[in-house]
Amino acid sequence: MPQFSRSPGLMLFPKDGGFVLYDPKEDNIQRNVGDFPECRFLANSGNWLLVLDSGSSLYIIDVFSKETIPLPSLESIESADCIVKRVGDREFIREESGAIYKDLSADVVRGLLWVSESGKEYVVLWLFDLPGHSYMSFCKNGDSHYTDIPLVFDDYAFHKYDGLSDMVLRGTRLYVSTSRRFVRVFDLSGPQGFFKDITGQTPFPMLSRHDYAYDSSIAVTTSSGEVLLVESDPSNRTWFRLYKKDPDVEDPDHACHTVTEVHSLGGEALLLDLGFTVPANKALGIKPDSIYFTRHFRPCHCSPRDLDICVYNLATKSLVRFPGLDKMNLMDARWFLPGN
Predict the structure, then answer these.
(1) What CA–CA distance (Å, rounded) separates 175 from 215?
(2) What integer pLDDT is reported at residue 5 of this predicted model?
(3) How far is Cα 83 from Cα 78, in angstroms, rounded to an integer?
(4) HSE on the CB side for 266, CA within 13 Å?
(5) CB-based contact 82:273 (threshold 8 Å)
(6) In this predicted model, what pLDDT tens digit does every residue of 41-82 receive, in sequence order?
(7) Strands 240-245 and 259-262, bridge-based pairing
(8) Is the distance from CB of 16 to CB of 22 less than 8 angstroms?
(9) The dihedral of CA 103, 106, 107, 111: what is its sign?
(10) 10 Å Cβ neighbour count for 324?
(11) Which residue from 201, 135, 138 is spatially nearest to 169, judged by alpha carbons?
């Protein structure tokens, strides 16, 4: 790997184009990756980026080695009741269950990415991020097409589990926060076309006392797979709050709040852009109880949020920002943890 520390770094995307890697530990730009004209960067995992190019083709690229893996076209979806058709370089229509959805643009495609340490295994997930999400689609290494995961139930009794407010991809496990904040878990492993809802009998809602008043995201702990809720105030981002499931809630379907606040990540740090925790490591400058943040609602941008690159420590309640980046006029930024 080119010279870059193994501590958390930042992928920076200036508005005037280009793409650079910034090492906060050294406080300098370590590598200018180059220009990606008219491309959109949907997600990252380790050294890898999920890219949608000007012709609406998806691929993943290792930003250090430049190894590139092309992915199936967006219209390559295997579904019994759905067809996606390309009607231009960046425009699509979707036909499903007798209905036709038009005005689907590559500009509203959002995605998630997971790549193994070896770079040999990966999972890619994407959707047209518009009100009334009905499906998202995924593929894995070796797949020739995408498989749809429905986000809406036909049975009215399950409508409370419809929709999407946030999602996290950790390996072949997908965590979905629904419109009403119920958390569903899917296993995406197995043969092509396979997925399984492994949530259990009753999904649990992640509702704080301040739900909808503040920005929030879900995250998953690496050590236990526990789902967390992370909150902050967009108008005055000087604090973050962390919550976990309240085991004393007896009837979560009718409770006003269902989580309890915690003040520690148990020796881990949270890279919120990735949606999961990593072990703290003093040698790499990864402090325990730290939250690495750029923005909320990253994989589901119905309400885009401004960038606010910072690191918050839950134990000391201190906040570190990087004012030297202000002059770069950034369009986007993402925390990443360099791989092997």
Answers:
(1) 18
(2) 64
(3) 8
(4) 13
(5) no
(6) 999 999 999 999 999 999 999 998 999 999 999 999 877 778
(7) antiparallel
(8) no
(9) positive
(10) 12
(11) 138
Q: Count the alpha carbons within 13 Å of 220 in the hemisphere toward its beta carbon.
A: 19
Report the C-alpha gap between 178 and 164 in whole angstroms: 4
Task: State in Å, rounded, how far the first CA of the chain is from the last one.
Answer: 7
Half-sphere exposure of 291 (CA within 13 A, CB side): 33
Contact (CB, 8 A) for 218 and 175: yes
In whole angstroms, what is the distance from residue 233 CA to residue 180 CA? Answer: 20
Stretch 164-186: mean pLDDT, rounded? 94
Rounded Cα gap, residues 308 and 295, in angstroms: 6
DSSP 81-146: SEEEEE-SSSEEEEEETTEEEEEEEGGGEEEEEEE-TTSS-EEEEEEE--SS--EEEEEETT-SSE
pLDDT exceeds 50 at position 1? no
Exposed e or buried b per residue across 73-90, where buried means at least 16 C-beta atoms within 10 angstroms of its C-beta: ebeebbbeebebebeeeb
What token pair was written down for 156? 């009215």
- Map tokens 């950790």 to a residue: 170
Q: What whole-number distance in Å separates Cα of residue 244 and Cα of residue 259?
A: 5
DSSP 29-98: EEEE----TT-EEEEEETTEEEEE-TTS-EEEEETTT--EEE---TT-EE-SSEEEEE-SSSEEEEEETT
